[in-house]
């Protein structure tokens, strides 16, 4: 009797045990989806007219036309309606408005963590590419913390110990030609960087790579910079793709802004076309990868640039500047990939940081 009760209880507990005893069950192990890569592309000084110039002066359909999710952002700093590139770079890199001139500090001069620091803690590898010196305001906002942007020797000194894994830009003199006699190139090597290793670009993911390719800024496109921006963007993507970890890249077309300051339309437009080409390199990668968020924007507009009529002739464009400084027009934001939806609408430049964090955590 006892045995019979036991048998009935077992049947109730394991109703299918008798008919399916030897077949192992296929357990689906859900593979954790890698966090998306993030590529942030900044055209310094690039307002809507600057973007528009690629539609009238290039010899191909602009890569800007590959984006479907578009928003607008307000770039004013904590203390000025019109921002400089330090305050707006810091807003993008840290999500905090600050005073004009500040790098990686908030309005009270307190250190705030930047995207390279925050994302490294989330196991991201990181890269920075710019056509200025690496110590210039925009790239510096992504790794350094100083009170004034002009402290470029201090910014260089901070770089070796940061979480940056790959960088390409100019600025050699800030590393080697210093009043304090320090050799910051040596310090880069001591901290695991291979320096200007241009032999075939055979990357090793266990190493870090530093490319400092000019004394100060790189040459302009008009002065023969060539394919630097798109080529080093491709190198960074090749290197970062060797790892299973996700990555963050900041790419800056620094000199669009300098064309605006110089009120030089040829300078500005040639830098825009170079940036558009680099957007193509990035979009080719992102479309294939299908887990990469691309964001293209500016830190502010420069020059009050317009594509105006030439003395009433609507068949001719006369590129025109109304200032040699910055302007505070809203700045377009182009997004593609996972989370791109979130970049629609009108918001503050600091919200870019928040939106990136939202998708990477
Ligand atoms: Mg800049
Ligand atoms: Zn500027």
Structural summary, described in words:
The chain has a ten-stranded mixed β-sheet, sandwiched between helices. The protein has a two-stranded antiparallel sheet with strand order 9-12. Strands 10-11 form a two-stranded antiparallel ribbon. Helix 2 (48-57) packs across helix 11 and helix 3 packs parallel to helix 12. It has helices at residues 2-13, 48-57, 85-94, 115-121, 137-140, 152-158, 173-176, 184-190, 228-240, 256-261, 265-289, 350-360; strands spanning 37-43, 69-74, 125-133, 166-170, 193-195, 208-212, 247-253, 292-297, 301-302, 306-310, 313-320, 326-327, 331-336, 345-348. It has a single domain, classed as Alkaline Phosphatase, subunit A (3-Layer(aba) Sandwich), CATH 3.40.720.10. The protein contains twelve helices and 14 strands. It is an alpha/beta fold and 361 residues long. Magnesium ion (MG) binds next to helix 5. The site of zinc ion has 6 residues, from helix 10.
Largest sheet properties = 10 strands, mixed
Bound molecules: magnesium ion, zinc ion
Fourth CATH level, the homologous superfamily: Alkaline Phosphatase, subunit A
Q: Measured on Cα atoms, how large is the radius of gyration?
A: 25 Å
Total DSSP E strands? 14
What are the key terms here?
single chain, 361 residues, alpha/beta, Alkaline Phosphatase, subunit A, ten-stranded mixed β-sheet, 12 helices, binds magnesium ion, binds zinc ion
């Amino acid at each position: 009797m006892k045995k019979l009760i036991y048998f009935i209880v077992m049947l109730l507990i394991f109703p299918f045990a008798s008919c399916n005893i030897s077949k192992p069950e296929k357990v689906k192990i859900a593979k954790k989806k890698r966090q998306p890569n993030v590529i942030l592309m900044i055209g310094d000084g690039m307002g809507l007219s600057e973007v528009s110039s690629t539609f009238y002066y290039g010899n191909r359909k602009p890569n800007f036309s590959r984006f479907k999710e578009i928003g607008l952002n307000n770039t004013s700093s904590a203390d000025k309606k019109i921002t400089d590139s330090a305050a707006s770079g810091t807003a993008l890199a840290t999500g905090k408005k600050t005073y004009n001139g500040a790098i990686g500090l908030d309005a009270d001069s307190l250190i705030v963590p930047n995207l390279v620091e925050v994302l490294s803690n989330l196991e991201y590898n990181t890269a920075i590419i710019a056509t200025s010196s690496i110590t210039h305001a925009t790239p510096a906002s992504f790794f350094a913390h100083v009170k004034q942007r002009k402290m470029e020797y201090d910014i260089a000194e901070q770089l070796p110990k940061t979480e940056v894994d790959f960088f390409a830009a100019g600025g050699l003199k800030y590393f080697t030609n210093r009043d304090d006699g320090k050799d910051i190139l040596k310090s880069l090597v001591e901290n695991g960087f291979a320096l200007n290793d241009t032999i075939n670009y055979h990357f090793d993911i266990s190493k870090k790579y530093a490319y400092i390719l000019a004394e100060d800024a790189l040459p302009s496109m008009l002065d023969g910079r060539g394919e630097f921006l798109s080529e080093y963007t491709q190198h960074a993507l090749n290197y970062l793709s060797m790892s299973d970890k996700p990555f963050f890249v900041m790419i800056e077309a620094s000199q669009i802004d300098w064309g605006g300051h110089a009120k030089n339309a040829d300078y500005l437009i040639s830098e825009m076309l170079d940036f558009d080409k680099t957007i193509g390199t990035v979009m080719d990668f992102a479309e294939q990868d299908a887990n990469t968020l691309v964001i293209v924007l500016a830190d502010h507009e420069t020059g009050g640039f317009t594509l105006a009529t030439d003395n009433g002739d609507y068949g001719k464009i006369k590129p025109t500047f109304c200032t040699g400084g910055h302007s505070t027009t809203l700045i377009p934001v182009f997004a593609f990939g996972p989370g791109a939806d979130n970049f629609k609408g009108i918001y503050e430049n600091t919200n870019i940081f928040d939106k990136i964090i939202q998708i990477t955590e």
